[in-house]
Specification:
Structural class: alpha/beta
Distance between the termini: 21 Å
CATH superfamily: P-loop containing nucleotide triphosphate hydrolases
Order of helices and strands: EEEHEEHEHHHHEHEHEE
CATH architecture: 3-Layer(aba) Sandwich
Number of domains: 1
Shape: globular
């Protein structure tokens, strides 16, 4: 499903303040796997996530998603893949604070022109699963951090994503709700959805059968 070959990401290339964020990364993720990528702050985790999600392109190397070379795609082509196949749960939630919860959940379909009554009903079902029935019509800026996190997850589920990429998805949750959310991710994974979680939380990582560590831009698999 995902294959990286000698991927590098360099910011400010050729300048005195050049940063080599990802170094010769080789990574292969098969359909239906659930993996955690751990590492300290500044290790390159968010940069790697942005490449995996098609938000940014590598400076060099190859990145294939479902057999397509994402590293050579235009911004528009990468955006289409994100809207159709990848559910992204960002650390800052990626939500529109002044808009309603239901419209935030339906945002990918609104962008792609697939917004209709069936999508609205599915969004409501996902919000129900996440225990958010009472905030469907509220504006996002009225929600708690934990509620915003669950809205972001509901959006990923509504779009039938083949893969969910989550950046610190439990950052706004206490231990009890962290474990509840991770059990939910495990359930999704059992249905064939590929899950990639970027985290510094070892409790979260322990829920994932496959683990990688990222240190100074170098990724390595941790033996199970």
């Amino acid at each position: 499903m995902i294959q990286m070959k000698r991927v590098n990401k360099i910011y400010n290339q050729g300048k005195n303040y050049e940063v080599h964020a990802i170094k010769d990364a080789d990574l292969e993720i098969n359909k239906g796997e659930m993996i955690a990528i751990t590492g300290p702050s500044g290790s390159g985790k968010s940069t790697l996530l942005h490449i995996l999600a098609g938000i940014s392109k590598p400076t060099s190397g190859e990145y294939f998603f479902d057999g397509e070379d994402v590293s050579k795609m235009s911004d528009i082509s990468r955006c289409k893949i994100r809207n159709k196949k990848i559910g992204i749960i960002m650390q800052d939630f990626g939500l529109l604070g002044d808009d309603t919860v239901i419209r935030n959940v339906c945002l990918p379909q609104m962008i792609s022109g697939q917004y209709n009554k069936a999508i609205i009903e599915k969004a409501k079902r996902m919000l129900h699963i996440m225990g958010l029935d009472d905030v469907v019509k509220k504006k996002v800026n009225q929600l708690s951090g934990g509620q915003k996190q669950r809205v972001a997850i509901s959006r990923a589920l509504t779009m039938n994503a083949k893969i969910i990429i989550a950046d610190e998805p439990t950052g706004a949750l206490d231990k009890q709700n962290t474990e509840k959310l991770m059990r939910f991710f495990k359930e999704l994974n059992s249905q064939g959805i590929t899950i990639i979680i970027v985290t510094h939380n070892l409790l979260v990582a322990d829920f994932c059968p496959i683990r990688y560590t990222l240190t100074d831009g170098v990724i390595k698999r941790i033996a199970s």
